[in-house]
Amino acid sequence: MAAGSYNSVAKWFHWVTVGLMAVALPLGFLIKYIKDSDKMPFYAVHESAGLTIFLVAVARLIWRQTHPPPPLPDSVPPAMRLAAAVNHWLLYAALIVQPILGFTATNAQGFPLRGETAYLGFIDFPKFMEANKPLADAVQSAHTVVGISIAVLLAIHIAAAIYHQAIRRDGTLLRIV
């Protein structure tokens, strides 16, 4: 492992999260445009990816507590360090809160992770509430806002990685690949 690089487990967590987000995020934005009679398979994939993101994010934070990330290169100014830290922690928070909101919204809509939307296609989750349309609508709105926030945070994260690689050429991107 090169000096300043993340360890292989941290890299695995990062890239698994990237793959899951590449599935969950576009589906989350596109699913409303799919004909109602055809939505369930898309919900099943979106919800399974979301719950897996939650599990990976929690495991990732636990790993991070016992294996701190390497420090940024000395050439990174304090303002960039702060921006990076804020963006990372907001992403962690959103990746944990978002699946909780989604799980709550689907339960409040009367569609717990069961049957055709079971987790990973075969793990049924217990229903923890009765259908509640006003609650479902409110939580779904929050889920949408957090989804948009994740997209913005990811755009900033990716733009910063490209900036560090293409403009600053400081090796920041290479720490995670």
Structural overview:
The protein is an all-alpha fold. Helices cover 66% and strands 0% of the residues. It contains four helices and no strands. Helix 1 packs antiparallel against helix 2 and helix 3 packs antiparallel against helix 4. It is elongated. It starts with 7 loop residues before the first helix and ends in a 9-residue tail after the last helix. The relative contact order is 0.14. The mean pLDDT is 94.
Helix-strand topology string: HHHH
Distance between the termini: 11 Å
**What Rg is obtained from the alpha carbons, in whole angstroms?**
18 Å
Biggest sheet features: none
Number of helical runs?
4
Main structural class: mainly alpha
Overall mean pLDDT: 94
Which word captures the global form? Answer: elongated
- Strand percentage lies at under 5%
Helix percentage:
55-70%
- The total beta strand count reads 0
Which residues form runs of ≥5 with pLDDT under 50?
Answer: none
Features:
177 residues, 4 helices, mainly alpha, single chain, elongated
Summarize the structure.
The chain is mainly α and 177 residues long. It is 66% helix and 0% strand.
Topology diagram in text:
Blueprint: H1 8-30, H2 40-66, H3 78-108, H4 133-168
Helix pairs in contact: 1-2, 2-3, 3-4
